[in-house]
Amino acid sequence: MHQGGRGLRVLSIPAGHVYTAAIRPEDVEYLPDPDIDGNWWPHPALDAAWWEYLPAAELPDLVHLHFGFDHLSPGQIADLTGVLRRRGVPLVVTVHDLDNPHLSDQTEHHEKVRLLVEAAAARITLTDLAAARLPAGTRVILHPRVVADPPPGADSGAAVGVFLKSLRGNVVSDPSFYRILARKVHEELGLPLRIHVHEDSASTDLVRGLRADQAGGAVDLRVHPPMPDAALHAAVAECRTVLLAYLRGTHSGWLEMCRDLGVTVAVPDCGMYEGQADDPRGVEKYRTGDPLDAARALTLLHGRGPVPYAGDRTRQLRQIREAHREVYREVTGR
Q1: Nearest 5 degrees, angle CA 128-CA 129-CA 131?
Q2: How far apart are CA 202 and CA 206, in angstroms?
Q3: What sign does the CA torsion over 18, 19, 21, 26 have?
Q4: 8 Å CB contact between 267 and 289
Q5: pLDDT tens profile 154-200
Q6: Residues 126 and 230 in one domain
Q7: Does residue 180 lie within any of the structural domains?
């Protein structure tokens, strides 16, 4: 399995995701994701039986599990970690989600995370706040940049925005939340709340409920198809501050994107979002689901003015990759 001279072969689940592609050390090979109807999910390597018949010569040096195990039961997680142990393949787990943003009942998810972190040869998470809820020795490695090339005019936006996309289960969908929020923001700042939402069946009720508020000037409703990254980054950069309208979750790549663009973010107190901040002035916490407190946070942030990203994202990315290489070295002895 460990042939001299070749680099480490890591089975990253997934490998081709924008996050996992970013953190990969340059001298490490990530085995390609399977193509299952144009997607990698569910990864066959999450099935314990897949490992039972894998020839020894094809075993990776380690498995690095990020996400994609939602469909597994706790028993299947136990089977997976057991077969990895028997076959001598170390497991590295990055805990992105202490709480699964797509689930209202976290009981089973918490049990699966517990089984994974107990079986892991190394544990990683993204913030000190999350690490404090995980076993001792969990390493904190920050989220990498999301926007490598900010559009012209980043750090100079003036709008107050919220980007709802396709209204996933962890996003507030009640129109009254946004009506109250928008009216309070308009009252305090004299600006409409710019609401971006995808044009699909999930948003129909919300869009219908908000159209009336456009006439009063409190809501600037923008219904559109999903935007390519460049257009999305430009739209976010038009804002001085944005709201994360989440009901649950742990960490946010969206927050990182906003901070890459110098945009400040009002974050709910349900997760570890505040702990991701590069600069404490770049975020303001509000009570989850409370539109008046969310308006307070947005008003405070808007008055604070632009807060450019604090630090060197290029150097940070290099450090993130080096930190992952060190973890891989520790668990494999190579």
Answers
A1: 60
A2: 8
A3: positive
A4: no
A5: 878 999 999 999 999 999 999 999 999 999 999 999 999 999 999 88
A6: no
A7: yes
